[in-house]
Structure to design on (551 residues):
């Protein structure tokens, strides 16, 4: 089978699919793309199912050579993207030929880029998913981030070049508001503490990765000293004794014992995941019913956008 | 039982405020009942000491519907009698070589090393939760006399199979990792086998007995004395 060969893996490049489900009971996390929307678009632009295996490149620096004639697309963070040194556009697909060099430089806005190939990367699943979790040593190629010399099998199939028109693309900002469903130990945070949390601006600290985003800002405290460890959902905001909230992301541990004030809506987590240290974040409470409405609305928007993909000529 | 919202597609069920056998049995029964009756809308579940996190497909049902279905599933199942997990026996090579913290527990408790080993085997432990790392099962409760706080400076390296105590919990490390539990022995049975037919010898709700084995038996069962660990301990 033909393949893509990794020349330089960049800061952190991982093979991802929609994530690993059904294995929390043995302690395995979900993983999957940090910005699911951008990931889905990269695949759709290559004619794939939205959840085909693609690469998530964090920060950038990924260089590969193609050993196949096929089609690729890059979405997500604004990042200089070249084929054989020639600058190419994001949010559309491009033909590549055997011997071509594909390179992502470093992101100028946002953090996570997605590179998909027609047919998806052909990688064996572990526990029903290819999603790489380096901490657990599971998924991807032997549970590791991409390394120089890795060969990623591809089908080498052709597909028409497509573009997502600009008005349908997400735009990333260094200053965001994320919606939070008050939940879990919410009642243990006094009204004053909740005011502080929802009324303040927080900064993404340098302790942010696929497991969690630690915030820096006004400290908050729960009126409880000890609790039994319990399951943690995607987006849960835990507050350790230092009072600085941590938003738990795709690679979160499955159980934990810190009080949680609520959970960030997944749609907004994607924008948080595009933040680098120093980014500004505000939290806004919403009801569970508003959250469900937002999910359904986003789904219908995404479906409508799919009919807006336009065919473009290959360069 | 109390049901609360956790996130946009998850509910958390609370069965009590403390870890005990009765609460653990309720968590186990609920996990089984939900798995059996609501499989079409459930994406994943995380049972723990006194709670159960239920993650559902928010495009197939909503939190109000699910809340009702969960109550019905649990009520229906508790009528059909008590379910119990399996009893699993795990062999342990207890020694000062394989369990360098036996001495510390002996000093603190005033017990002999042999008494500590006997007390660790005397109890039947429940699997309360699995997490921290793939296959890491939290077992409780050890006899109060051998309960031990986590060590002040966690070890940089704890080998696969290490049997530890933290407060009144005990566990077997499924893979090498840093760790702050007091180490008392080594278990030759892998706790997590990604490639195997059975991922783990235990699941939440099972009960575990430990049984002492000799060094020769440990090695014959595939156990290994990790060089890196032995060197680390020799230096300490």
């Amino acid at each position: 089978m033909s393949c893509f060969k990794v020349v330089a893996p960049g800061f952190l490049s991982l093979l991802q699919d929609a994530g690993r489900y059904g294995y929390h009971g043995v302690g395995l996390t979900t993983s999957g793309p940090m910005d699911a929307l951008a990931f889905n678009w990269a695949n759709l632009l290559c004619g794939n199912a939205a959840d085909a295996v693609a690469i998530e490149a964090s920060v950038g620096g990924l260089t590969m050579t193609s050993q196949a004639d096929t089609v690729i697309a890059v979405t997500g963070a604004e990042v200089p993207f070249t084929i054989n040194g020639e600058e190419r556009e994001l949010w559309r697909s491009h033909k590549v030929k055997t011997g071509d060099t594909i390179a992502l430089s470093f992101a100028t806005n946002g953090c996570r880029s997605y590179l998909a190939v027609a047919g998806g990367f052909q990688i064996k699943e572990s526990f029903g998913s290819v999603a790489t979790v380096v901490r657990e040593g599971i998924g991807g190629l032997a549970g590791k981030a991409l390394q120089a010399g890795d060969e990623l099998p591809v089908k080498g199939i052709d597909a028409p070049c497509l573009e997502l028109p600009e008005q349908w693309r997400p735009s990333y900002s260094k200053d965001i508001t994320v919606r939070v469903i008050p939940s879990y130990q919410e009642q243990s945070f006094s009204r004053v503490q909740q005011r502080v949390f929802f009324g303040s601006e927080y900064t993404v600290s340098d302790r942010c990765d696929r497991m969690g985003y630690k915030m820096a800002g006004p400290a908050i405290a729960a009126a409880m000293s000890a609790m039994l460890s319990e399951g943690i959902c995607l987006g849960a905001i835990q507050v350790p004794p230092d009072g600085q909230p941590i938003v738990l992301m795709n690679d979160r541990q499955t159980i934990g014992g810190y009080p949680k004030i609520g959970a960030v809506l997944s749609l907004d987590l994607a924008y948080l995941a595009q933040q680098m240290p120093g980014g500004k974040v505000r939290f806004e409470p919403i009801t569970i019913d508003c959250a469900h409405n937002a999910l359904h609305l986003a789904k219908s928007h995404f479906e409508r956008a799919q009919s807006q993909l336009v065919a473009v000529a290959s360069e | 039982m109390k049901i609360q919202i956790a996130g946009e597609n998850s509910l958390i069920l609370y069965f009590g405020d403390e870890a005990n056998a009765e609460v653990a049995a309720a968590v186990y029964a609920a996990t089984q009942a939900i798995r059996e009756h609501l499989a079409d809308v459930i994406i994943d579940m995380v049972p723990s000491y006194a709670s159960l996190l239920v993650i559902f497909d928010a495009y197939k049902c909503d939190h109000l519907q699910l809340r009702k279905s969960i109550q019905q599933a649990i009520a229906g199942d508790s009528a059909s009698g008590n379910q119990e997990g399996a009893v699993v026996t795990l062999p342990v090579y207890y020694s000062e070589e394989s369990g360098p913290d036996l001495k510390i527990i002996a000093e603190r408790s005033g017990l002999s090393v042999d008494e500590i080993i006997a007390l660790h085997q005397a109890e039947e432990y429940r699997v309360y939760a699995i997490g921290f790392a793939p296959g890491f099962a939290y077992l409780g409760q050890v006899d109060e006399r051998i309960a031990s706080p986590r060590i002040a400076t966690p070890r940089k390296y704890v080998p696969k199979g290490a049997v530890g105590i933290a407060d009144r919990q005990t566990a077997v490390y499924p893979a090498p990792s840093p760790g702050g539990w007091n180490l008392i022995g080594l278990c030759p049975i892998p706790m997590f086998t990604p490639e195997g037919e059975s991922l783990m010898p235990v699941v939440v709700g099972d009960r575990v007995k430990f049984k002492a084995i000799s060094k020769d038996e440990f090695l014959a069962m595939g156990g290994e004395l990790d060089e890196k660990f032995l060197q680390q301990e020799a230096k300490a």
User: Anything to note?
Assistant: The helical segments of chain B are 21-37, 63-79, 102-109, 113-122, 215-220, 227-235. Chain B touches chain A at residues 4-10, 12, 17-19, 43-53, 55, 58-59, 62-63, 129-136, 138, 175, 192, 194, 199-200, 203-204 (CB under 8 Å). The CA atoms of residues 94 and 185 of chain B lie 4 Å apart. The first strand of chain B starts at residue 2 and ends at 7.
